[in-house]
Amino acid sequence: MATEITVPALGESVTEGSIGEWLKQPGDAVAADEAICSLETDKVAVDVPSPVAGVMSEHRAEVGDTVEVGAVIAVIEEGATGAATKGEEPARAQQDRSEGKEERAPEKAPQKAPEKAKVSDDIAAAAQTLSPAVRRAVLEHGVDPSTIKGTGKDGRLTKEDVIAAAKAKGDAPAPAPAAAAPAAAPAGTGEPGAGRNEERVKMTRMRQTIAKRLKGAQDNAALLTTFNDCDMSAVIEARGKYKDLFAKKHDIRLGFMGFFAKAACLALKDVPAANAYIEGDEIIYHDYVDISVAVSAPNGLVVPVIRDADKKGFARIEKDIADFGKRAKEGTLTMADMSGGTFTISNGGVFGSLMSTPIINPPQSAVLGLHRIEDRAVVVNGEIVIKPMMYLALSYDHRLIDGREAVTALKIIKDAIEDPTRMLIDL
């Protein structure tokens, strides 16, 4: 009996997605509730499960195709038995033929060149079942994907897994050519030399949405950024003093983001315009603070939301952030996790950024940018001292937030970080 697999409901206001990756190929065995493909939406990648057990009969859509909710994308034959391993029989036949040749000529040792070629062929064959980004990384670095433990959802390999495995082997980051490349053309001849290859890759649906939203923010908002620097000494001291007790009591690491989230709540309470946004010819103010936290995921930047951050303590905020980071890496964040949000915090410092002008996350009107901490010479009470300093940036929509309000909000955040006691007594 054939069962048609349709695109499931994807969340409020989401009516379509695109096929990101087929996890099951025609002829593969499929268990009930097992994911058969990954569907990319504007915000997240969603696995489509099979409602029945059987064998994948056919795909009705190709990778990259846009499909609407309810559209048929695959057919599964219920009760049929699929091949345990794709290509198993051809592999066995090839092995039998190889064994036959060895019996006829056992004294002939294999040549090194064919051995290397066989390894390359095996890697290329194994890479065919991986996602496009992971497949490119496998082929570029020349690692065997079967020897790498995946950290993605259901044990799948991620691009980061491949790069880490390549570094562990001491491989150079640049891909090694499979064969000797022709000599480069002499400089100044205008002829392209060796290694000047190009690859055209279609943007993922998520990347297209990110590009559209960020460009829309620039086109529709009057963006401006104000800066300040912040002495991190007090937070570093408090974290060093209490991190062990904090971890023991709450079973979570005490990080810097909790301090900034609580400091932002103080600022947004005193400057409500920074926690509001424009809708048509109206301004919508919020008596709650939902902080969107920018998190790096394999397919791009995502912004899950810490609900009611103003009512949560440090431990709950840190647990939410850790959970978001874990699920972003696994690709299990949902549409509900990223809907809403009244203010955003983006930490470019984890990547080494010294200073930036972050772009607001529409329809929000402000975003706080954090950067790396570095020792700098500053003047304190007339003396030059070394302090761990961080640049803070607040980008805002000048249509709604005046310069005075933006500067005031950032100053409140700075003061709270430099004197964390302010967060306890609500100053």
Largest sheet, in brief, is:
7 strands, mixed
Report the strand count: 19
Which fold does the CATH topology of the largest domain refer to?
Chloramphenicol Acetyltransferase
For CATH, the homologous superfamily of the largest domain is named as: Chloramphenicol acetyltransferase-like domain
Gyration radius from CA atoms, angstroms: 27 Å
Number of helices: 11
Describe it.
The termini are far apart. The chain has helices at about 90-105, 110-125, 130-140, 160-170, 205-220, 235-250, 255-270, 315-330, 335-340, 405-420, 420-425; strands spanning about 1-5, 15-20, 30, 35-40, 45-50, 55-60, 65-70, 70-80, 225-230, 275-280, 280-285, 290-295, 295, 300, 305, 345, 365-370, 375-380, 385-395. With about 425 residues, it is α+β, with helices and mostly antiparallel strands. It has 3 domains: about 1-80, OB fold (Dihydrolipoamide Acetyltransferase, E2P) (Beta Barrel), CATH 2.40.50; about 110-170, Dihydrolipoamide Transferase; about 205-425, Chloramphenicol Acetyltransferase, CATH 3.30.559. Mean pLDDT is about 80; it is low at about 85-110, about 110-120 and about 170-180. The longest helix has 18 residues, at about 235-250. Strand 13 (about 295) and strand 14 (about 300) form a beta hairpin. Strands 9, 12, 15, 16, 17, 18 and 19 form a 7-stranded mixed beta sheet that branches. A 4-stranded antiparallel beta sheet has the order 1-8-6-3, with no helix packed on it.
